[in-house]
Amino acid sequence: MNSPMVVLPQLFNHISTVSTAGTASTLSREEHIMARCIAEAYKYRGTVSPNPCVGAAVVVDGKVIALEAHQRCGGLHAERLAIGSALNRLAETTDATNTTDATNTTDATNITDATNTTLPAGGELFITLEPCSTHGRTPPCTHIILSSGIKRVYVAILDPNPLHSGRGIELLRNHGIHVTVGVMAESATTLLAPFAKGIATQTPYIFAKIAQTLDGYTADSFGTSKWITGLPAREHVHALRHGADAILTGIGSILADDSILDTRLHTTTTPNQHRNPSVIIADTHCRTPLSSRVVQRYASQRDGSGNGDGTDMLYILTGEPQNAPQVQKLNNLSSRIAVITVDTKADTHTPRLNLLHMLQTIHKLGFNNVMLEAGATLTSAMLHENHIDAIHMFIAPKLIFGGTNALQIPQPPQSPQSPQSPQPPQGITLGNATTLQLKHSRQIGDDTLLEFNVFRT
Ligand SMILES: NC(=O)c1ccc[n+]([C@@H]2O[C@H](COP(=O)([O-])OP(=O)(O)OC[C@H]3O[C@@H](n4cnc5c(N)ncnc54)[C@H](OP(=O)(O)O)[C@@H]3O)[C@@H](O)[C@H]2O)c1
User: Fold this and answer.
1) pLDDT digit string (tens) for 81-114?
2) For the sheet containing 390-396, what is the strand order?
3) Nearest 10 degrees: CA dihedral of 335, 339, 340, 341?
4) The model's pTM
5) Distance (Å, rounded) from C-alpha 53 to C-alpha 39?
6) Is the beta carbon of 82 within 6 A of some atom in ligand 1?
């Protein structure tokens, strides 16, 4: 089935498009409902990992009577919530006309497999991801679908986990349910890309934010990068942070900018608006200052305190810390600060973090969708080693004729024994360039945002 583009006003302002061809007016009924499920799922990015973002709707008599999404890891799955809320809605309608019959009332957050309440014949279920058919943190969703009386199910995409893929669909079909797979598949694939990458590689999906001048600099010749872009673009960056599980930065940026790396959304109303993603600093020698604003932010918070749900953490990933007391001091500051050791690269005089092991460590911490907000050194190294999946490039209409290049060929760190002069790029030609696919472009205030997918080479 083709997967047309839809521009949805109910999506966050930073997710303007759901797919890549066509317009909202060309959507079929099924596509339109699935697009709403996808938009609902996007609202909970950042709170469901390591689970996938999933949305679901129940349709009765042609009307969407329930639209729900999986909201947090360990919480109920989207289809279970949607069926529960649809039953509630129907019970309320019944109550309004027959006040003596309250037996149909089912709490959407407390629906159990023992319920004998069913949806009317003709009820339909839309889900962005194949329902699970095995016991995980919650019982299988296929079970609740079968007991709900639903006979028609629309699924956007199959479970990317090869252990489960297709099993839920097969089980439903074996029980006489008519299942259509592939409605808005392209948009759902984009929604699910972080989860799918985690399953396939045990590393998180990485999207990099780069703000640069028109002539390609991310900081001026004094090292100042505040501010390259205007206020609307910076507000957009906060929306990007809000949707990430974690922000990954380099020690260079912490030392240069002393950024607090929290989320300040002023214009968007979303569930859990004040939630902050966790912060991860790539810091080979554990030089992160105790007095830095990001450390102080977490030092002043205990579990459950702070803005949002208070579950975010500060992780400092070190390789060979030269300053053991510093590691201890940081670890002792708060239960929400943790210093973790990862492997270093063996091929340089002065060690730097092994990026693959760093990313595997980040994935093990439960993060699927990570925003890279670092300077040219870490961003270029990540790109060079093919770890970046998407780039959000903000281009400011400014020329500064010098400064820090947005991207540069990664140089090994200098050791005092063998100082090196910068080497010209070796072996990179137009023929073997990293190629990007432009997904969207738009104006945000005076700045231009280009969103690219990065192809694996
Ligand atoms: N315009 C923008 O979008 C933007 C965004 C962020 C920052 N900035 C600017 O960027 C500048 C800082 O950039 P930066 O390049 O110095 O710092 P950076 O990229 O943020 O951090 C680089 C540091 O990460 C650490 N690192 C650990 N393992 C690494 C690896 N395998 N490869 C590469 N780095 C690794 C290294 O420090 P150790 O080895 O010592 O641990 C390295 O020096 C500031 O001026 C800041 O304002 C601009």
Assistant:
1) 999 999 988 887 765 555 443 333 344 444 444 3
2) 337-341, 314-318, 278-282, 246-250, 369-372, 205-213, 390-396, 447-454, 436-444
3) -160
4) 0.87
5) 10
6) no
Q: Which residues are bridge partners to 442 per DSSP?
A: 449
- Which range of 12-21, 134-143, 319-328, 363-372 scores highest in mean pLDDT? It is 363-372
Full strand arrangement of the beta sheet holding 55-60: 63-69, 55-60, 124-129, 152-157, 178-181
Rounded to the nearest whole angstrom, what is the distance from the C-alpha of residue 378 to the centroid of ligand 1?
Answer: 5
Verify whether ligand 1 is closer than 6 Å to residue 284 (CB atom). yes
Average pLDDT taken over every residue of the chain = 84
| For residues 409-434, average pLDDT | 63
DSSP-derived pairing of the beta strands 404-405 and 217-219: antiparallel
Residue burial 103-118, b: 16+ Cβ < 10 Å; e: rest: ebebebeebeeebebe
Q: Using a 6 Å cutoff on CB, does residue 406 contact ligand 1?
A: no
Calpha distance 395→131 (Å, rounded): 41
The pLDDT confidence band at residue 275, using thresholds 50, 70 and 90, is: confident
- Cβ–ligand 1 contact at 355 (below 6 Å): yes
Distance in Å, CA 252 to ligand 1 centroid: 4
State residue 153's pLDDT score.
97
pLDDT tens, position by position, 196-234: 999 999 999 999 999 999 999 999 998 888 899 999 999
Our answer on whether the CB atom of 381 is closer than 6 Å to any ligand 1 atom is yes
252 lines ligand 1 (CB under 6 A): yes
Q: Is 86 exposed, middle or buried (0-12, 13-18, 19+ CB in 10 A)?
A: buried
Nearest ligand 1 atom to the CA of 252 is 17
Atom 47 of ligand 1, nearest CA residue: 225
Give me the pLDDT at residue 348, please: 64
Task: Using the atom order of ligand 1, give the atom closest to the CA of residue 379.
Answer: 19
For the chain, the maximum distance between any two Cα atoms, rounded to a whole number of angstroms, is 87
Active site includes 79? Answer: yes
Task: Identify which has the larger pLDDT, 416 or 332.
Answer: 332
Q: Please choose from 225, 327, 344, 409 the residue to mutate so as to test ligand 1's pocket, defined by most ligand atoms within 8 A of CB.
A: 225
Give me the mean pLDDT over the 26-35 stretch. Answer: 95
On whether the CB atoms of residues 376 and 407 are closer than 8 A, the answer is yes
